[in-house]
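Hi R.,

Here are the chain sequences for the assembly we discussed:
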Amino acid sequence: MSAMLELKNVSAGYGTFQALFDVTLSVNAGEAVAVIGPNGAGKTTLLRAISKLINVKSGDIAFEGRSLATVEPHRIIELGLSQVPEHRRLFPRLTVEENLRMGAYMEAARPKFAQRLEMVYALFPRMKERRHQMAGTMSGGEQQMCAIGRALMSGPKLLLLDEPSAGLAPVIVQSIFDLMRKIRAEGYTVMIVEQNVRQVLKVVDRAYLLEVGRIKASGSAAELLASDEIQKAYVGL
Amino acid sequence: MIGRNWIIATALLACVPLAVSSLYILHVLITLLIWAFIYTGWSLMGRFGLVSFGHGAFMGIGAYVVTLLWNLQGISPWIGIPLGMLLAVAVAVLIGYPCFRFRITGHYFALVTLALTEVVRSIIIALRDTTGGSLGITPASALKDGATWSLTALQCSDKRVFFYAALVCWLVGIWIWQRIDQSMMRHAMQAISQEEDAAASVGVNVTRAKLTITVISAAMTAFGGALYGQYQQYINPETVASLGVSLQMVFAVIAGGMFVKLGPTVGAVFTLLLTEGLRVGIGNQINSLDSTIYGLMLVLFIIYMPDGILGKLMEKRRAGPRAA
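And here is the predicted structure of the full complex:
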């Protein structure tokens, strides 16, 4: 079975600084996969490489069997890869609904705008209440919902989430992970990059541990949660 | 409603030359319309965070290409104007593409454009044998033997003709602004100006969107420069291609209102009243007093009224009924 997203020996970085070394991982259709690891492990760089915001130095990234090497950044979404960026990156001075409209910016998504808007509002009723509010004026948790909603507006095959819990109050973090479960239940294939190891491992099927730019361990969420190494270093028990 | 108001306003403006015989007023109105058009062109970029200090370069290219082709080769401005616009667009792409491709944004982009104006000005001065250097240049007159106009040379001694040309030009500028405002381009550019990476990730071709808006803006400015040269029948690097001109555009648009359709036009009225008022009131005794005042006011506008005069007024009007 061929994976939906496949990274083979990917190395990448910024200028002369290398952030990823020989990263190999895959995400199958229907799965939820996490990449966990501490600050500075290269998790965000990994997602930036997948969404072509930076170029890989060596190795290859393929989506549905097609190499992304020559794909331009704005075409990534057309393939069905949608990203919820770190710190949400909403358009702060656009309203919630305008942000969602931008999520359906690409040609193929425009005719389905109204239908998907209803779908997002059904998933996040709070967004419907706030639809005329400037996105930048909402709370962190609401902004995260809006960012996820925006990513869903393109009707993605694979949803990439970059640190969805970062910078949020603990009680909100809990609700964000509840949202993750909801989105999984909708049948989306999801890849999450996250520092909150204990929480994220309860949501996903499999995970990779990334440390200083290299994959150090991988396995099912249950296996990793049970492993001594992860227990000591990340779960803090 | 808006459509009807526009038709009435345009009709009233079109009647001005019939009602007003003062050449001075006509002259002021012509320059006002040409500047309003150029400022509108500048604001296409400015409103989306692409602050350019380089539009003097585009204006200078438009004005000089037309005049030089006419004087040296006898090529009619009808051909010279498109060529001037084409050269301005080529320069815009040459500067814009690398900036946008390599994510040079904000202050850094502004600095690149600042250099552009100086480069163009220096070239005009360095080629003084052909361009007349800092003394400027006059298009060779085609109005010989009592002729009052020449279609080939786009020259005319009757100011009313230029008034109507400038009026049409300004209306087209407003129309372009509106077309862009109602297009997906506006959404794309707004998104880019607020979060560039996120815009790319939702499928906006960032480089192309910025380049398109830059090309339109540069072409408009070059056209405005050419029209200015044809009307004034005299251009020099200080008046069409200097840093001063570039700064004047930035100031006028910020003062008038960068984010509203008629903001740049209000900016043109404001700066013109200021310059003419100072000229009439104080005369030319104090050198570059107007620039000093511009500078001071720019600081004040940016701090206290970043949306400009018209932007502030419209905001007040929107807030008014609710408060009452």
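The beta strands of chain B are 149-150, 155-156. Chain B touches chain A at residues 184, 187-188, 190-191, 194-195, 197-206 (CB under 8 Å).

Let me know if anything looks off.

Best,
T.
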